[in-house]
Design a protein that fits this description.
CATH architecture of the largest domain: 2-Layer Sandwich
Structural class: alpha/beta
Helix content: 25-40%
Number of helices: 11
Strand order of the largest sheet: 2-1-3-4
Bound molecules: iron/sulfur cluster
Low-confidence stretches: none
Number of domains: 2
Shape: globular
Number of strands: 13
Strand content: 15-25%
Largest sheet: 4 strands, parallel
Radius of gyration: 21 Å
Distance between the termini: 61 Å
Length: about 300
């Protein structure tokens, strides 16, 4: 059987589902490759994570087309035997010491901008770190709220004892960082930094509290803060807050996307604010009001517009 794969989002990030499908089909003796648009394939898988990326706009030359991923449909899941396959990392030419996966799925919270609770439900155990790592020394973990689960905390202990370097790339929930958890987080070997969500005004204090606790136990690295941008004044206050704190806080501004409206046009201020926040040198050296993203336009104008 010939299998073609399409990463509809354009290879922004390695697509775990495609890597598992590739591994499973190869284990069945099938011939797997990226879809070229030239040859005929027995089956083509199209994976799309984001609702805002454009769909693949061409006719597919295949006997069967299977579409999946949050960008198409939040209810599709991989068959169990495929889901348990070690991913085919060669598909994205990933380094030999790096693995991707999840230890838990779901989240107990229901943040209004987030699809996870609807898609995956409450948090539950999913895989073991040794199964995910497959002997690799670094693991990117895409768990949505690892600290909200006792199983997740046990897995963190295991990560520490195995000395695996990790990145929880979806961020941790600062509200859940107790003294014990902070001690544990300070012991983890991080790939680069610890990430938290800082999506509401209240989370500023929570992030400050959590990071001070983790520092107390000896962590001296970077903190990466995800900041959703929803309303102008509140978002500005929240992202601007960290400018004077420490160069150890690195922010990523994320314009709010209405998951029920894939054709939503993002407000220009959200794009400009994200552009400012996400370029660390610019963010640290220039106030948002002085940022000039386009000729003859200073962001100062937004302050009178959104009063
Ligand atoms: S805590 Fe994170 S994963 Fe959970 S609902 Fe909120 S944004 Fe989504």
């Amino acid at each position: 059987m010939t299998i073609g794969l399409i990463d509809v989002d354009g290879h922004r990030f390695p697509n775990l589902a495609l890597m598992k499908l590739s591994a499973w089909h190869k284990s069945q003796g099938d011939v797997v490759s990226w879809y070229t648009g030239i040859e005929h394939y027995d089956r083509v898988y199209m994976a799309k994570v984001f609702s805002f990326t454009p769909d693949y706009g061409y006719c597919i030359n295949a006997g069967q087309v299977v579409k999946g991923g949050t960008g198409y449909d939040i209810t599709t899941v991989l068959p169990e035997e495929v889901d348990r396959m070690p991913p085919d990392y060669n598909l994205y030419h990933l380094s030999n010491d790096l693995a991707y996966g999840f230890l838990t799925r779901g989240c107990p919270n229901k943040c209004k901008w987030c699809i996870v609770p609807t898609k995956e439900g409450n948090i539950s155990p999913y895989m073991d770190i040794e199964e995910v790592s497959g002997g690799r020394k670094k693991v990117i973990l895409m768990d949505n709220n690892i600290l909200a689960s006792d199983y997740g905390l046990q897995q963190l202990e295991k990560i520490i004892s195995l000395g695996i370097r990790v990145d929880f790339n979806q961020g941790l929930d600062a509200r859940l960082v107790t003294d014990d958890i902070a001690r544990m987080l300070a012991k983890v070997k991080w790939i680069k930094r610890i990430r938290f969500g800082c999506d509401t005004p209240k989370q500023i204090a929570e992030v400050e509290r959590a990071t001070a606790l983790i520092d107390k136990y000896g962590y001296g690295g970077e903190y990466f803060l995800y900041c959703i941008l929803m309303e102008f004044e509140e978002s500005f206050h929240r992202v601007n807050y960290w400018r004077d704190k420490s160069h150890r806080f690195v922010l990523q501004g994320q314009p709010y996307r209405d998951l029920n409206n894939p054709h939503q046009v993002l407000p220009q201020w959200q794009k400009d604010m994200a552009n400012w926040v996400n370029r660390k040198e610019l963010y640290m050296s220039c106030e948002f009001k002085d940022f000039t993203p386009r000729k003859r336009f200073r962001c100062e104008k937004y302050f009178s517009e959104y009063k």
